[in-house]
Amino acid sequence: MSQSDLDEELSLEVGEIARLLSYILFLLVSAGMFFAAGDIPTSRFEKLGAGAFPQFVFAGIFLICAIAIVLTVPKIPARAYGQLFNQAILWARKCYLVFVCLAALGVYLVAMPWLGFSLASLIFLFGLQMALLPRSLNTIFIAAIVAVVFSYGLNMLFADIFTVFLPKGVF
Amino acid sequence: MDSFLIGASQIFTVTTLAYMLAGSIAGIVAAAIPGFTVTMAIVLTLPLTFTMEPLQGIAVMLAVYVGGYTGGLISAALLGIPGTPSSVATTFDAFPMARGGEAGRALSMGVWASFFGTVISTIVLIVAAPPLAMIAVKLGPWEYFSLIVFALTIVASLVGESVIRGLIAGLIGLAMSTVGSDPILGRSRFDFGLETLETGLPFLVVLIGIYAISQLASEVEDAKSVKSGSKLVTGAIDFQTWKVMREVLTRPVNLIRSSIIGVLIGALPGAGGSIANLVAYDQAKRSSKNPDAFGTGTPDGIVASEAGNSATAGGGLIPMIGLGIPGSAVDAILMASLMVHGISVGPRLIMDHSDLVYGMFIAMAVASFIMLIVATLSMRLFLRVAEVPKWIIVPVVMICCVVGAFALNNRVSDLYLLGCIGVFGYALRALGYSLAPLVLGVILGPIAETNLRRALMTNEDPTLFFTRPISLLFLIAAVVSIVWAIRGHMKKRKTEERLFDAAAS
């Protein structure tokens, strides 16, 4: 087996560990939510209370996650657990633009009520395009035009034509 | 006959046809933007129709409606993001086909399937509106709950590479639908004291977050390709209008079955296009000789989904015209527009205003033709989207998603929800969970819970689910569906094991 095949196998095994962790997380959350649903007051007007349906659902999640854990654990060799952290770092480095995009979106959404839709969108669009684009004068110019059109332009379209007013901000 | 001619004479005027053309374009464009639904497009059109004649106004709104169902396929095929909830299943095959270098064929196929779906539903509407409306209204909560149980078995077809993860995703969708006040007594549940969660998770925000944000994030996973200015879709873009029309027509069984599913589901109040496309896709997959091809860009998947969702437009009018009961939010708005003009919608509508009803039938057919012309001519423009590099399209579509999520309720807190659900959706996608079952769970959860509790409030005897004939029929169909799915998965596993053994030896 070549080195690249070994790396791929290791990456698959570490992927299984990540999924196993997700099953455990869902199992724990569903257990907690099951009991929380049991605390919802019932009504004398109906057989099932407001908590009954959620309890069915969370019991189902708990059961299936338990089955998933039992089926997954034997598939993972012991050596893979030691590689989890290293492989996670490698994956994060490879997909760094995903984190850039999601972080930019998060900052944009939080800043919008203060900056207003137009200004926040202008900064978000131009900033994210700069992070993603192949740098040249031409692409930077296009990015600037796109940022203006889809921030101030979109705001004008919604306000003047659809009478839908996007957040104005405090500035 | 006189009524038919009066209706036709009102539709075939230059003014009405021009308004319908504008409506069709507006519907296609609105639904093509992720986050903007057909309902939103119709709501925005409603005030514009107040000054029109009643039939003219309804015709314009029907044009928006029919155009909107088709427009959803544009972002589904080109971006892998359902433009509207009714085009979720379209992403399964149209997107892989577009990614395989056949973006034009994928769009063209969707347009033709939508056209035929609308035409078939109009024919069914004309022939079967009164009897179907009578059947639809006789269904009680027992039948509705059993129908939803049957619809939930579709999850088995949508699980993707892992049955277990598909089931977990479906159940997470159901769990998400329980957030907020309960649908019967309004008791608050799982809102953690947050005002935003008191009314539940808005479905559209969940859809945009789960599908759009996670899809956009996954587009930039390969940093090298993004930085080199790569486009969304590569390969020659050819619309192949007539060739694809023949290709769609060579699938008559799939086309008719999917359209009838769309009509029937559309006729049930509360169901609609968001379920019809998934059910039609599921049935096409189950009856296919090659079910494994579904999800890889097969034409049958696109035909089933698009014919199914477009046919709900006609189906939804059945209870409205026959009984005065709106089948969906869009039908309620159509009803409102008639009431604004002083026309009461109810069982007497067809007797008192037969020219209007026949006019609506004609308007549906004309709207589908206008949609076909507009779509055929404009798809070349839409296909230009595929040529835009990812570094532009990803941030711009994110902005559209944000605007769509905000415009729904004009609430900033919905934007925070969008961000959180987007990150959650990307995590699920990265871990190999299929997202379609989750969306199905969110759609079906409230309908299942409401009808289960309503049935048991009406009569505490749970055996009624099995003793009422239509309810029993749906439950039997659900059992058959599960057995069929298990058989399919076992067969697939055996084939894979055989291939693995053959490769090893």
Give the SSE layout.
The complex is a heterodimer of chains A (171) and B (505).
Chain A: H1 3-38, H2 52-72, H3 78-82, H4 84-94, H5 96-115, H6 117-132, H7 137-160
Chain B: H1 2-11, H2 14-32, H3 38-45, H4 54-78, H5 88-138, H6 141-152, H7 155-158, H8 163-177, H9 203-219, H10 223-227, H11 241-249, H12 252-267, H13 273-286, H14 299-323, H15 329-340, H16 349-352, H17 354-382, H18 390-409, H19 413-430, H20 436-458, H21 464-467, H22 469-504
Helix pairs in contact in B: 1-17, 2-3, 2-4, 2-17, 3-4, 3-15, 4-5, 4-14, 4-15, 4-17, 5-11, 5-12, 5-14, 5-17, 6-20, 6-22, 8-20, 9-18, 9-19, 12-13, 12-14, 13-14
Pfam family, one (chain B): TctA
Keywords (chain B): Membrane, Transmembrane, Transmembrane helix
Transmembrane segments (chain B): 20-46, 58-81, 109-129, 141-160, 255-280, 356-379, 391-408, 415-445, 465-486
Structural features:
heterodimer; A: 171 residues; mainly alpha; 2 domains; 7 helices; 78% helix; B: 505 residues; 22 helices; 74% helix; Putative tricarboxylic transport membrane protein (chain B); DUF112_TM (chain B)
- Average residue-wise pLDDT of chain B: 83
Number of strands of chain B: 0
Q: Work out the radius of gyration of chain A.
A: 25 Å
Bin the strand percentage of chain B: under 5%
* pLDDT averaged residue by residue of chain A: 89
Low-confidence stretches of chain B: none
Note the total helix count of chain A.
7
Largest interface between protein chains, with number of residues from each side: A-B, 68 and 61 residues
- In the residues of chain A, how many domains can be counted? 2
In short:
Chain A has 171 residues and is an all-alpha fold. Chain A has helices at residues 3-38, 52-72, 78-82, 84-94, 96-115, 117-132, 137-160.
Description:
The complex is a heterodimer of chains A (171) and B (505). Chain A has two domains: 3-93; 96-160, no CATH class. By secondary structure, chain A is mostly helical. Chain A is flat. Chain A starts with a helix and ends in an 11-residue tail after the last helix. The model of chain A has no long low-confidence stretch (mean pLDDT 89). Helices cover 78% and strands 0% of the residues of chain A. Chain B is mainly alpha-helical. Chain B has one domain (2-195, 238-388, 443-504). Chain B has 22 helices and no strands. Chain B has helices at residues 2-11, 14-32, 38-45, 54-78, 88-138, 141-152, 155-158, 163-177, 203-219, 223-227, 241-249, 252-267, 273-286, 299-323, 329-340, 349-352, 354-382, 390-409, 413-430, 436-458, 464-467, 469-504. The radius of gyration of chain B is 22 Å and the shape is globular. The N and C termini of chain B lie far apart (74 Å). Chains A and B meet through α1, α2, α5, α6 and α7 of A and α8, α9, α10, α18 and α19 of B. Chain A: Residues 24-167 form the DUF1468 domain. Chain A: It comes from Cohaesibacter marisflavi.
